[in-house]
Give the backbone structure.
Amino acid sequence: MQEIAPNIFIEQNSLGMVTGIIRLAKSTTLVDYPFRQDEVKSWRAATSRMVSGDARYLIMLDTHYDRLLSAKASNCTMIAHANTVLPARLKIINVKGQDEALVQTESFDPTGNVARLLPPEITFEDSFTMHLDEFDIKMKYRPGANYAAIWVELEAQKIIFVGDSVMVDQPPFLGFANPDIWVDEMELLAGKDYRGYQIVSTREGIVNQDQVKKWGEVIHFIRDKFASWTKQDLPLEEWFAHIPDIMMHFNPLMRADERYYNRLRWGIRTWYDNMMSSKSEVTND
């Protein structure tokens, strides 16, 4: 566990996610869940000197499978964006039986129905702030990387948790993304408003604004490709054929790893299916 500011910690859990722990006087607020159900006792024993009391609140940064899987251990009051509970999405979140390999987590844990985790106790549409002890914990809707994604900002401490909105050298999760919005969010995060901030990525830990800018260029490339392929009305198989073009933005180890290739394949397929479904609805109207 790494303390990045007084009473604020980050830790990588067994699913590979970097989570946040905000220590309060009598309890703890979590940004994503730092352990799985079978690790609760050992985690509490290992962190008893650093974490005050049981966790009271759990802030969910989006609906990616590993995030929901880790939250199965939680008895906290869960806070998430309102889109987390959209009925139309529950069928998508239930990943059991998918004919594409589930590679969102790069974990080999068995998959199952995580839709039963919903709904959270507290939801919001645009923004929400909690005032806890000396912390003002601000949550803002940022749907670039995921239709229910939020960022958690502690302005006084100059820390922001951005979930899967930023990665450094691995493919993005595209299935529930909005590349147009995502590009704008990266410009915002790389700008003056967040100068001097510690930016916490769920997949990378602390990243800097130069890395955010480079990541924005990757998303910009993907956005333009998606727009071009959509305009050309290319079939799904031709979208898959262009996966190596996207993989060229990452190091050779990533390109050789089938899990990362499948992450893009799964994401492109899901994004394509959602796009085609939306076009069909517009045509029927």
User: Anything to note?
Assistant: Residues 87-116 have pLDDT under 50 and may be disordered. DSSP finds nine helices and 13 strands in the chain. The radius of gyration is 19 Å. The CA atoms of residues 13 and 34 lie 5 Å apart.
